[in-house]
Amino acid sequence: MMRAADLPPTLPVFPLPGALLLPRARLPLNIFEPRYLAMLDDTMKSDHRLIGMVQPWEMPNSDKTRLHAIGCAGRLTAFSETEDGRYMITLTGISRFRVQKQIQGFTPYICCDVSWNGFERDLGVIEHDPDFNRDYFLRLLGQYFEAEELKTDWDSLRDAEDELLINSLSMLCPFAPEDKQALLEAPSLGTRRETLVTLIEFALRSGGGDERLQ
After folding, report:
1. Domain boundary residue, one of 93, 123, 153
2. Rg, Å, the chain Cα set
3. Residue 213 has pLDDT above 60, yes or no
4. DSSP string for residues in the chain
5. Which of 14, 55, 64, 91 reaches 20 to 30 Å from 101, CA-CA?
């Protein structure tokens, strides 16, 4: 656990489309680009060992990309180096943040001034979802996994805590980057679960016929 006072005003940022990190969840990454290898070297020397994960988005009628306003910082909690010079790392989600501005010119990777205001609950205890209808959710998820030809350990899903189940599926399901951003920006676990259900129902309907469970 980190305290609000431990969160830095500036973060190195890794803009990776479709990669979602949420508080208290773990995200494995394979790092090989020279600028991000440099970012990891610098991160390991810092006191906080935090990296900001932010979704980039393409500007209309332009080949330029910008960063979404909200990302999530993860603490470097596992690290190994392969024989060919790649880094295999794990980030553990700490807190979401809002990008204030990008800092230009000092590093080969992106750094941003950030604000942590409004995301105090991310540093708190594990969230629960009192309105979570797990039976309906798992039936719906079964249809979705069958349609997408995905496999999972169903016993683990049935026994998982609300937050672990909802956040893990939000991160792992093959949604579009903009959908991942909507899941990230959900203000509470209940809202994230509602968004996740909507995305799954939409994917089923788009796959042919109205598959929604009643």
Report:
1. 123
2. 18
3. no
4. ---GGGS-SEEEEEE-TT----TT-EEEEEE-SHHHHHHHHHHHHSSS-EEEEE-EEEPTTSS-EEE-SEEEEEEEEEEEE-TTS-EEEEEEEEEEEEEEEEEPSSSSSEEEEEE-TT-GGGGSSPP--TT--HHHHHHHHHHHHHHHT----HHHHHHS-HHHHHHHHHHHS---HHHHHHHHH-SSHHHHHHHHHHHHHHHHHHTSS-----
5. 91
**Which CATH number do you get for residue 11?**
2.30.130.40
Determine how many CB atoms are found less than 10 A away from the CB of residue 75: 16
Beta-bridged to residue 51, according to DSSP, are 74
- Determine the structural domain holding residue 155 and report its residue range: 134-206
The answer to pTM > 0.85 is: yes
